Amino acid sequence: MRYRTRAMLAGALVLAAGTAQAETRLTYKSAKTGTSYYQMGVELAEGMKAASDGQLVMTVEESQGSVQNVMEVRARGADYVFTAPPSLVADAQSGSGAFEGRNAPQFAEIRALFPIPSLTMHFVVAGAEGPTTLEAFDGKSILLGKGSFGATEGEKYLALFGLMDGVTIADAELSNAGDALKNGQIDGFVTAGSFPAPNVVEAAASQEVRLLSLSEEQVAQTGQARVVIPADVYPGQSGDIVTTGLPVIAFTTTAMDDDTAYELTKAFWTQRETMAETAPWWAGVSLEQVAGLEALHPGAARYYEEAGVAVGE
After folding, report:
1. For 292, left (φ over 0), alpha (ψ -120 to 50), or beta?
2. What's the pTM value of the predicted model, to 2 decimals?
3. Is residue 264 within 8 Å of residue 111, measured between CB atoms?
4. How far is it, in rounded angstroms, from Cα 180 to Cα 187?
5. Of 112, 122, 254, 261, which has the fewest Cβ atoms less than 10 A away?
6. Burial 58-70 (b: 16+ CB within 10 A, else e)
7. CA diameter of the chain
8. Per-10-residue mean pLDDT for the chain, 313 residues long?
C-alpha cells in the first residue's frame, strides 16, 4: 500500500511537471483599465489561451501608456509583450522625442509580432444632414479633450486645413462628449480610438450624428496612415469613412525565444476572426498590414513565411 501510494505521488508530480513545461506564461502590457485597449488585452489573452489549448497563458497588466510600455523593456525578460505605435519605438531606438536622454541598449532588441487595431481618428458632428467633410466643423463648438493623441492630432488638423479661426474649442473632458453633444453644449467632437469607439457609439445611439471624412489629399497632408471605417460600424453610418490612424503593434524583444514568438503569432491570427465576431475592432486588423512591420521577431517572421504572408524588408 505504501509503495503504491509513493508511486501514485511520483506519477502526479511527473504529470504536474509536464503540465508546467507545456504552459508558457506571458505578461501583456497595453493601457489603463477601462479603456478599449485594455479590453483588447483581455480578449487577446482569452484568444491566445483558446488557440493554444491552454499552453499560452497571458496576464494582462495595467499601463499608463505606450511610453511606459517601452521603458519597461529595460527591466523585463523573455515573457514580456507590449503595445506601442512603431513611431514611438523608433524614437526610443534613436533617443529622440519622449526618450531624449533616456537611451538604453535594450531598445535596440525590440521586435514586432503582429498589428492590433489602429488608434483611429473620429470626427463627429451633430445632425444627420449636412456636409460630410471637415468643413462641417466651421462655425461650430468642438470638443477636442486634453493631452491625448486625438486632441493633439485634432488641433493639428484644424490648423492644417485652415479651420482653427472658425471653430470654438470647448473646455470640457472628452469623457463627457456624448452628454455634452446631446445637451447642445457642443456641436461636435474629435476622438481617437479603435473602432467602434465607445464614446462615438454612445453619441450615435442617443441622437443623429454623422462622421466626417477626409479627402485623399488631406490624408496625405497629415502624414498619418490612411484608415477606412467600414459602413455600418456606427448607427446611421451608411457609407465608408476615410480618416487617418496611428498604427499600433504588439512587440516583444529578442529575449523571447523563437518558438514562443512563433506560437504567439500563430495563435493571434488563428483567433483574429473569432475575436472579431464578438469585438468588431479586431476586424480592422488584416494580414496586409504585416508588410508595413519593421524588425520582425524571427519567430514571427517564420510564421509569416510559412503562411505565405508578404513582409517588409
Report:
1. alpha
2. 0.78
3. no
4. 9
5. 254
6. bebeebebbbebb
7. 89
8. 51 46 88 86 96 95 91 96 94 93 95 94 93 94 83 92 93 81 91 86 90 95 90 88 94 97 97 93 91 95 96 82
